[in-house]
Design goal:
mainly beta, Immunoglobulin-like, 2 domains, six-stranded mixed β-sheet, 19 strands, 39% strand, elongated
Length: 297
Amino acid sequence: MKRFTFAFGLLAALVLFEFLSLGFAGSHFAVLADDGEPSLQEWFNQNGYAIDVVKDETGIETFPAGFYGIRILAEIAAYAPVNNLSWYLAGDAQLNLIFAGENTTGETAYFVANASFGLCLGSPDGYFYTEAGRNTDGKDHALVFVNPNAPGYIIAWEDLLNLGDADFQDFILAALTPVNVGVRFCPRTLNLNSKGRWITAIVKLPKNYVAADVNFSSILLNGTIQAERWHFCKSSRLIVLKFSRAAVIELVKESLNGVRCKKSIEVSLTLTGKFLDGIPFQGIGKIRAINLGRCGK
């Protein structure tokens, strides 16, 4: 992406008049693009996204907790080889790297955020957050639109300080939000001293999805325990998953953090996975743990 300047005099006056007449006063992005580059609106039109860059920007700055996929749709920037993208928990300064350097269109990375979070684009001009208040120039460097083609959002970035040329097509991303699924565990009560082999999870997919759409090797329990077996009919919305009982017991014990002196306690377990098209899904099920251990040492 190259920097450019508008001509002064009559041309500038005409451009300003045109913007005002179209209701663009105060808009923080340019409708025009640099030589040879599509504008953000042109990119949306050319790639099949029914988005109006003026009317459809949501103003969203942070996103709800969950299992997300971040997919690169385009990177039209001179800084592409050195730019990086991270996520961070709202209220926290810790950046968690997602992409670094020049990446391939279509590349997707996944992460679990346990609380609301934002995204941060790093460039030689600085670090630019989806939360405009965190940016050193105080400008909004990320335009967020609802994705009309997949669950989630499209985020269009400007990677230059003070918005540079304000074309907002330096880095265009899809934030794929998780599809919610239903989860029930069997047994519903887990004896922490039991020696059985499996914990079964019965998963119900939402409408428009069937078992044949699922990437079964991607399924994890609390991000750590992989499903070892699965049973399904391709056209059914129900799938049956088998997890190691010993591994689940250790996971539950860790989550209880030494809790004792109770007859039982209910524990929430989160199941995550991906559909074959890369869309993430998640579901939360509860299991009651018993035999937590004696009081005292």
